Task: structure prediction
Amino acid sequence: GAVVSQHPSWVICKSGTSVKIECRSLDFQATTMFWYRQFPKQSLMLMATSNEGSKATYEQGVEKDKFLINHASLTLSTLTVTSAHPEDSSFYICSAHRAETQYFGPGTRLLVL
Amino acid sequence: TQLLEQSPQFLSIQEGENLTVYCNSSSVFSSLQWYRQEPGEGPVLLVTVVTGGEVKKLKRLTFQFGDARKDSSLHITAAQPGDTGLYLCAGGSGGGADGLTFGKGTHLIIQP
Result:
């Protein structure tokens, strides 16, 4: 199978702090990973594409200086939400690309107080 | 901008009935994927279709990719309470190396 993990599964932080979320492909290598955000009762929205060894590409309307992405190895991508605000509270989900398909992690619930 | 219109958004039916969920777009996709998502969890892949006209079956679920690769359908036969969940279609381009465009999802409830 193709297993993707995320850590942490949930996090609560104070407004103004930064939060790092990890996404790992456990049994395969992924040169490309993706980060999505899902608000309650809504579908997934692509935030950015994370490319191993190069800069991430961001979707329109997503601030690259606020959502820092680092893809340092073929099995790990990290998303750092900097200076988090309550409106950043959401469900963040990563996926890893393998053979025409994307396999999703279990998601990280972020609550910013 | 590619958009996927998924319908219906909500569907509540009795156990044993059949149902179809539709996913339509004006754009062509290289692949289309169907996922099921439980509350508080990530989407779980059900199927990937890549060839126009392709039909795939997964037990009581039948997936079809339109000839023009712009639309897809999910048909469930003899629905069971265990089928309850959020079903998402997602279109991919660039051989899967690009991010997916998701439909808004169909919230399905199967009543015993």
